[in-house]
Amino acid sequence: MKRKRLLAGNWKMNLTGKEAAALASQIATGAANLQRTEVWVAPTFTSLAPVAQALQHSQVSWGAQNAHWEPCGAFTGETSVPMLKELGCSFSLAGHSERRHIFGETDELVAQRVFGILKGGLTVVLCVGETLKERESGQTNAVLERQLRAVLDKIEPEQVKQVIIAYEPVWAIGTGKVATTKEIEAAHACIHSFWNSKLPDTCPPILYGGSVAPDNFAEIVQVPLVGGALVGGASLTFEKFKKLIAISEEVTVLVRN
Ligand code: PGA
What we know:
The chain has about 260 residues and is an alpha/beta fold. The protein has a single domain, classed as TIM Barrel. About 40% of the residues lie in helices and about 15% in strands. Helix 9 (about 215-220) links the parallel strand 7 and strand 8.
């Protein structure tokens, strides 16, 4: 096994600082001595400091849900990489579908965020995924390639080790409608081959995200090229998240090809 399976909780705009710290403390205990799994959490900006305190002596890493590319400046409502690093963050998401579709972030803007995060020395979890309309009109691969191209065109080979990709079909996020293993396998294969066609043999780990839950996770982690999961709803309850960690620890297959 080359690297551990990654289980990343995206808490979105949920939990106050106190609530987030309480959940983080439970996760810290539940994630001790893991053999096959790395656990990351992404709380809201205001919860980062209390979560950092709760996780400081644990094996769990924390990061942000978004980051700006400039270190400081007149960007009302934004947060910079140096600010995140001061709070001990090791990663930031970029291009989450809620950023793209609710807040209108374009491929180019997402790429700017990605390069700011990389330049600042954090790992980026680059989220990509198609809408239902795009899937139904046969554009899934084209959309994934377009979203990746914005980053791939400018990335330096030495930056690739700081990248994780998350494939999250928009129609499966928060809907309870999980993609089939065939759909996941096909999308991950598309991402993998497109990335490697631009930068041979460098494709980063690819997480699946979209209604991951204890009752579907064992099947998902065994899909070829699934390196872990980005989990929204099921990461907000310790009982569910604990089950996902346990499943990840039990399933031995990582990446089969
Ligand atoms: P979900 O969210 O697990 O609630 O579907 C996943 C995500 O948006 O990262």
